[in-house]
Design a protein that fits this description.
Number of strands: 8
Largest sheet: 8 strands, parallel, barrel
Oligomer: single chain
Keywords: Amino-acid biosynthesis, Cytoplasm, Diaminopimelate biosynthesis, Lyase, Lysine biosynthesis, Schiff base
Radius of gyration: 18 Å
Family: Belongs to the DapA family.
Pathway: Amino-acid biosynthesis; L-lysine biosynthesis via DAP pathway; (S)-tetrahydrodipicolinate from L-aspartate: step 3/4
Pfam families: DHDPS
Catalytic activity: L-aspartate 4-semialdehyde + pyruvate = (2S,4S)-4-hydroxy-2,3,4,5-tetrahydrodipicolinate + H2O + H(+)
Structural class: alpha/beta
Length: 287
């Protein structure tokens, strides 16, 4: 399964009552694929506010996005949690909904050992025929999956990639030891180009909601050997990469979508919307 170079971790649009806004969700899927050049979409990941979505909402989102994308982009379901049995349950729901793969985050809060992390992911992978993308994001999970554990998991047939948010050093270690066909994606927009330069495959992005076309151009320029052009595009995009994370994600990317004519509503508590001054600062960063 090829998920492409530019994967967008899609926000979940809400209406004024805090319910999923299906009309806005449909527009957003089209916009991300057609205008922002996304190769794949992650549904119900962190950027999609997965902690505050019910299982029923997640299943409905999986089915909706698969139908709306209609083969124009791959759909990856965020089915990870800190409960292995619940992650297996969500993964089976996602498989029945017709998604193309699942994204599984390192278990958070209960602070498993590396052996626990390994067996968590192994159990989920063995429960499904879907391709599995691992997700290591120590800033959110506290527990961090080591390069050694990642490479051990990469030996499992349907674990095909990782989204890595640890250091470039760890990304380098994974790339150096990975079996053929195992792909490494950056989980940090700001190091997309450096990760490509050391052999990474692409990016699972937040900024691609609003500058995906520029990011795709940067990736293609680098792959075509136009390194100076890629570097110039990186410099152009960098303020947006950093600015979108001045508040907890996805607060500012949702605000940014409103500013570019793709309103997706607010966020669910315990997140709160950006204030007027924060939105004004963001407005100045957008192209």
């Amino acid at each position: 399964m090829q998920f492409g170079r530019l994967i967008t971790a899609m926000v979940t649009p809400f209406n004024g009552n805090g319910e999923i806004d299906w009309e806005a969700a449909g527009r957003l899927v089209d916009y991300l694929i057609d205008a922002q050049k996304s190769d794949s979409l992650v549904v119900s990941g962190t950027t999609g506010e997965s902690p505050t979505l019910t299982d029923g909402e997640k299943e409905a989102l999986f089915r909706f996005v698969v139908e709306r994308a209609a083969g124009r982009a791959r759909v990856i379901a965020g089915t990870g949690s800190n409960d292995t049995a619940h992650s297996i349950h969500l993964t089976r729901i996602a498989e029945q909904a017709g998604v193309d793969g699942v994204l599984l985050v390192v278990p958070y809060y209960n602070r498993p050992t590396q052996e626990g992390i390994y067996h968590h992911f192994k159990a989920i992978a063995e429960s499904t025929k879907l391709p599995v993308v691992l997700y290591n994001v120590p800033s959110r999970t506290v527990a961090s999956m080591t390069a050694e554990t990642t490479l051990r998991l990469a030996q499992i047939e349907n674990i095909v990639a990782t989204k890595e948010c640890a250091s470039l050093e760890q990304v380098s270690q994974i790339i150096a030891g990975a079996p053929d066909g195992f792909l490494v994606y950056s989980g940090d927009d700001s190091v997309t180009l450096p990760v490509l330069a050391i052999g990474g495959h692409g990016i699972v992005s937040v900024a691609s909601h609003v500058i995906g076309d520029r990011m795709k151009a940067m990736i293609e320029a680098y792959l075509d050997g136009r390194v100076q052009e890629a570097a110039a595009l990186h410099t152009e995009c960098f303020p947006v990469f950093k600015g979108l994370f001045e508040l907890p994600n996805p607060v500012l990317v949702k605000a940014a979508l409103g500013l570019v004519g793709q309103p997706v509503g607010g966020v669910r508590l315990p997140l709160v919307a950006a204030n007027e001054a924060e939105v004004d600062t963001l407005r100045k960063l957008l192209p």
